[in-house]
Design a protein that fits this description.
Shape: rod-shaped
Low-confidence stretches: 311-316
Radius of gyration: 41 Å
Number of strands: 6
Strand order of the largest sheet: 1-2
Structural class: mainly alpha
Distance between the termini: 16 Å
Largest sheet: 2 strands, antiparallel
């Protein structure tokens, strides 16, 4: 009686709330994975930019070091080690067999060959060497971080692709089954526009009613397009089931023959879930277990009217 129905409705509402909560949690988890994926991509891009900056700075330091070394070879005819380890000359009256004037002339000639000398060259070289070592260590760390980020992104892409392909295959199989119910003898398929890149690919919905050869859905009649859309919609329902569905005027564009096909699809689902259909079609109303309507008596307010058409073992 009414108490049983009320109890059943309460149970179903609780179940609906639970499923909505679970759907919300699943959505949050999906958004979290997507957010992590985007953050990882952004981090990788920043790492690449930083790597380019360090490589540029390293190149500039190497060029400066080579220029200093070239200046030593050109002006002093010596390499870095010789320049840093050269002893100070000791000039005395008894500098060998040469007179002091000759020794001075020799040193002056050597100074002229050396040209302008930077007394801070050794210190600058040491600083550049230290900077070069520091940047080299940073570059090594960035290479390691980049490799780790690539591994994380690859793992995320694999998981997302695996889940997407599983859902796609379930929906595609259900679509073919429902299309065969709505279009006896016809063929309906889902196809990826780019199978090699499933995460970037679009999804093509193909519909081929019996006796027709169409290349685009726009070539179908309005009723046929509605049936094809319903076949896809119910394929999603089957792949990701829910205990409760609300359909609002989904069969409004169908004629009597197509409406009968739609009712066969509804009949297949009515034992798996609750179906609430907002409709003005008489055939749809006749197939329902319970009808709900709104009426207004003269001088009164709107009233909800409920009419049972069969024994209630499930609310449809």
């Amino acid at each position: 009686g009414i108490d049983v129905i009320s109890s059943r409705l309460s149970e179903l509402r609780d179940r609906q709330a639970e499923l909505r909560a679970r759907a919300g949690e699943t959505g949050v988890e999906r958004d979290r994975v997507r957010s992590r994926h985007e953050e990882t991509r952004t981090s990788l891009e920043k790492g690449r930019q930083r790597l380019s900056e360090i490589e540029l700075a390293t190149t500039e330091l190497r060029v400066r070091r080579e220029n200093v070394a070239e200046g030593l070879r050109r002006d002093a005819d010596a390499d870095e080690a010789e320049a840093l380890g050269a002893p100070e000359p000791v000039v005395t009256e008894a500098a060998g067999d040469l007179p002091l004037e000759r020794v001075v002339e020799d040193f002056e000639a050597r100074l002229r060959r050396m040209g302008p000398v930077n007394p801070l060259a050794a210190k600058e070289y040491a600083e550049l060497e230290e900077r070069h070592t520091f940047l080299g260590d940073q570059l090594s760390d960035l290479h390691s971080s980049r490799d780790e980020l690539k591994r994380v992104i690859s793992a995320l892409d694999e998981e997302i692709q695996e889940r997407f392909l599983a859902a796609y295959q379930e929906v595609a199989t259900a679509y073919e089954e429902h299309f065969a119910v709505l279009f006896p003898g016809g063929t309906g398929k889902l196809a990826m526009s780019d199978p090699d890149e499933p995460l970037e690919s679009g999804i093509e919905i193909r519909a081929q009613p019996l006796g027709k050869k169409v290349s685009q859905l726009t070539l179908l009649s309005g009723g046929e397009r509605s049936l094809a859309a319903l076949a896809f919609l119910f394929a999603v329902f089957k792949a990701r089931p829910s205990p409760f569905y609300v359909l609002d005027e989904v069969e409004a564009a169908l004629d009597d023959s197509n409406l009968r096909r739609f009712m066969r699809l509804i009949e297949a689902f009515r034992h798996q879930a609750q179906l609430v259909i907002v409709t003005h079609q008489q055939q749809t109303m006749e197939s329902a277990n319970v009808l709900y309507g709104v009426t207004m008596e003269p001088g009164g307010s709107s009233t909800v009217v409920r009419k049972e058409l069969s024994v209630v073992d499930a609310l449809v």
